[in-house]
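Hi F.,

I've been meaning to write this up properly since the lab meeting, where we talked about keeping a consistent format for the predictions we share between groups. The idea is simple: the sequence comes first, exactly as it goes in, then the structure tokens exactly as they come out, then a line or two of notes. No screenshots and no reformatting. I'm using this chain as the first example so we have something concrete to point to.
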Amino acid sequence: MMIHRVASRLLAAVCVLAPFGASAATAHHHAKHPRSVAGPVIVANRMATIEPSAAGFVNAVQVFPFADGVIYHVITAPGQVTDIALQAGEALVSVASGDTVRWVIGDTTSGAGTDKRTHVLVKPFSAGLVTNLVITTDRRSYYITLTSTSTTAMSALSWTYPQDAIIALKQAAVAADAAAPVAAGIEVEQLHFNYLVSGDHPSWRPTRAFDDGRQTFIEFPATLAVGEAPPIFIVGKEGEAQLVNYRVKGRFYVVDRIFDAAELRLGTKDQQIVRIHRVGEGAKSGRGA
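Output, unedited:
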């Protein structure tokens, strides 16, 4: 019995220790064959690296297009300083290097105000060195591989920022659309202001309505931009409400038709309703007001 109990305890111990043994064997295999683990990393880094190119130089400055996760290869040489120029207005947070013993790395600035730029300056002590550089700012992170040769070095490098350019174009388009006139080619003599605004008095209540004989324009106060905009309904002869196509241009609703009556409605339980009526079709008092 004693031998049976001892054998059972040994078997249980082997079962408990088996996973740990397997893990140790796996770790030993990876340590013995590191290329099986490093291989994917090497391939990913190689594919993510952008090399300097003759077409990318503007005078002596290599200009890279910036993209997240890309590694930029920078060529340096002992006795020469390479300038890494960041975007104007970009604030430096930190600079980290894999080798701070055989490389001199510092930073400085140029310009002032919105044109102020940070420059990270690098210089190797000897040829044949390779290290990496991670620069973090208030806008992005830069990943750089530094290689030193005996005599050849890049004087400077900087980036273009396609994503920023796209955002700027979109903002410019929005600003231009907002600044564009509500309608072009309309003479004052063609405008009819014979519309009466009545009903509730919400913050978005229109200040007036008018038409040019083809379209109706409803002008709102500036508060329309900071709140929910009410939909407009055309009121038919039988009092039925119908949705109508309209466009929003700044503080104006532009309705592509002339109507006799319309309602602006907002809310469900405590609905706010503002009515717009055309008074006396073609009334002389309404023209050119």
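Notes:
The first strand starts at residue 49 and ends at 50.
The helical segments are 2-32, 35-48, 162-179.

If this format works for you, I'll send the rest the same way.

G.
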